[in-house]
């Protein structure tokens, strides 16, 4: 390791190795991390709160798997005695009385919450511009958005203000900001990681997951936050595998389906070209790649257009938002409902309407039927392919202010991710391109069938090792 390399730029695997060998100390690691936070957090607006006791906690965790590394946590995970606001004024100053399962497991494994990161308020958005505490800027280019709703966590990773991070995804909220910030983000299978203690948005969709500087980092962190939880009946009953075990196994013989590049919105774009180049990489590594054509109807061997998922996701998510935000009436939590932002109010009203007697069958029930079509479509495709690859986002990170007067911004930016999210599938986004002039990144999403995170991560790791796009791997 170069003596000039700041310790906050280490990957999770590197940091653990150096701490355990006592080549570096917690004091040195946290000094560099806190110096970076002091230098850039004011301009990027990534952290909403920092734990002043983080270094002391870290020093007692050296002999744990995560060795006391500083980890950023999205501000919708309840952290006992440590403010949690979901970036909404409704919960300003709120101190939870219990801990989320994910953060509890992460800390038990030896991770330390260095701070809570900014997000779209209540996770409503894909930009971090709906936060009641100001927009977060993209560290790769501060004139641009970091994505969302886990924009603060993705930005913390990209700016090296942590070693790894935790986010949550409902339909793109881990993968899309990871793509825009040039980092790695993993959405596990729905039910792989517990939702207990996560401020609920869309209960049939919400999914906690790791965000990091490499595929290996995310696989390692997922090892420690996944698993059954008696406090969350939607978690799987079986213990998860070791997601790091077969990372380097290679992908020779893997069957890969390439999706969405024939979508009209993508033709002639940088992301279309980037994904076509990824196919060449997979083939060079011994996989077989076939294009999967779009279809407006459910047909064997074709992928259902993602366009239908916009209405489907909008109806299902808004309906669940209406139900989940009903508890915030000012009596039990924080301030009254007048503190809700404009986006939360829009979603509550639309969700309430779609659940109203006489309209529920027309909208909500119909949306669930369309959801079942996407599930059937993926079941068919995964009988033919081991993984599916596609763009994470239609393009590069958009400029600050792009969400103004655009109430469907998130749904349009997450168009390519919503189908897999409503189907509950696991997905990982890895960098697959960079524009030199703007320093903005493109992301590749790799999907696998339910509970098949291992093959998905193996494919992502092989691609990452073979390409130049991971800035930590290639500038270390």
Molecular structure report:
It is a single chain. Helix 9 crosses helix 11. The chain is an alpha/beta fold and 476 residues long. 34% of the residues lie in helices and 14% in strands. Helix 4 links the parallel strand 2 and strand 3. It has an 11-stranded mixed β-sheet, with helices on both faces. It has a two-stranded parallel ribbon with strand order 9-10. The chain has 15 helices and 13 strands.
Overview in brief:
With 476 residues, this protein is α/β, with parallel strands linked by helices. It has helices at residues 12-20, 26-44, 54-59, 101-108, 151-158, 175-181, 215-225, 270-284, 307-324, 342-354, 361-381, 409-413, 418-422, 453-466, 471-474; strands at residues 47-50, 70-74, 112-117, 164-169, 184-187, 207-212, 255-259, 288-292, 294-295, 303-304, 387-391, 427-435, 440-447.
Describe how the helices and strands are arranged.
Layout: H1 12-20, H2 26-44, E1 47-50, H3 54-59, E2 70-74, H4 101-108, E3 112-117, H5 151-158, E4 164-169, H6 175-181, E5 184-187, E6 207-212, H7 215-225, E7 255-259, H8 270-284, E8 288-292, E9 294-295, E10 303-304, H9 307-324, H10 342-354, H11 361-381, E11 387-391, H12 409-413, H13 418-422, E12 427-435, E13 440-447, H14 453-466, H15 471-474
Parallel strand pairs: 2-3, 2-4, 7-8, 7-11, 9-10
Antiparallel strand pairs: 1-3, 4-6, 5-6, 5-12, 11-13, 12-13
């Amino acid at each position: 390791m170069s003596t000039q390399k700041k310790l906050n730029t280490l990957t999770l695997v590197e940091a653990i190795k150096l701490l355990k060998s006592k080549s570096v100390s917690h004091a040195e690691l946290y000094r560099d991390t806190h110096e970076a936070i002091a230098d850039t957090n004011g301009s990027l607006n990534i952290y909403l709160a920092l734990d002043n006791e983080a270094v002391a906690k870290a020093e007692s965790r050296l002999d744990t798997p995560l060795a006391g590394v500083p980890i950023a946590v999205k501000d919708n995970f309840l952290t006992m005695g440590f403010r949690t606001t979901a970036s909404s004024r409704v919960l300003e100053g709120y101190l939870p009385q219990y801990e989320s399962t994910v953060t509890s497991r992460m800390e038990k494994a030896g991770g330390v919450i260095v701070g809570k990161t900014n997000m779209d308020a209540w996770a409503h958005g894909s930009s971090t511009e709906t936060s009641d505490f100001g927009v977060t800027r993209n560290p790769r280019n501060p004139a641009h958005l970091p994505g969302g709703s886990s924009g603060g966590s993705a930005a913390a990773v990209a700016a090296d203000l942590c070693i790894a991070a935790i986010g949550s995804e409902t339909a793109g909220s881990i993968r899309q900001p990871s793509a825009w910030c040039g980092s790695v983000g993993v959405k596990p299978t729905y039910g792989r990681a517990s939702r207990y203690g996560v401020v609920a948005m869309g209960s049939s969709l919400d999914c906690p997951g790791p965000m990091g500087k490499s595929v290996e980092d995310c696989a390692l962190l997922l090892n420690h936050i996944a698993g059954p939880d008696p406090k969350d009946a939607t978690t799987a009953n079986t213990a998860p595998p070791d997601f790091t075990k077969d990372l380097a196994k290679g992908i020779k013989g893997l069957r890969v389906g390439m999706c969405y590049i024939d979508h009209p919105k993508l033709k002639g774009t940088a992301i279309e070209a980037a994904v076509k180049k990824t196919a060449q990489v997979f083939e060079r590594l011994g996989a077989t790649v076939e294009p999967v054509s779009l279809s407006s109807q459910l047909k064997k061997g074709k992928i259902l257009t993602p366009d239908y998922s916009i209405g489907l996701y909008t109806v299902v998510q808004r309906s669940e938002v209406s139900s989940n935000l009903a508890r915030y009436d000012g009596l039990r939590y924080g301030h009254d409902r007048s503190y809700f932002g404009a986006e939360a109010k829009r979603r509550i009203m639309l969700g309430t309407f779609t659940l109203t007697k006489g309209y529920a069958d027309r909208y909500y029930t119909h949306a669930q039927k369309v959801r079942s079509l996407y599930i059937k479509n993926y079941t068919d495709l995964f009988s033919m392919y081991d993984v599916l690859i596609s763009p994470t986002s239609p393009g590069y990170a958009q400029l600050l202010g792009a969400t103004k007067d655009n109430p469907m911004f998130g749904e349009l930016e997450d168009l390519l991710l919503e189908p897999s999210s409503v189907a509950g599938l696991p997905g990982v986004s890895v960098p697959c391109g960079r524009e030199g002039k703007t320093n903005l990144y493109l992301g590749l999403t790799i999907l696998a069938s339910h509970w098949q995170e291992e093959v998905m991560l193996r494919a992502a790791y092989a691609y990452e090792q073979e390409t130049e796009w991971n800035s930590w791997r290639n500038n270390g």
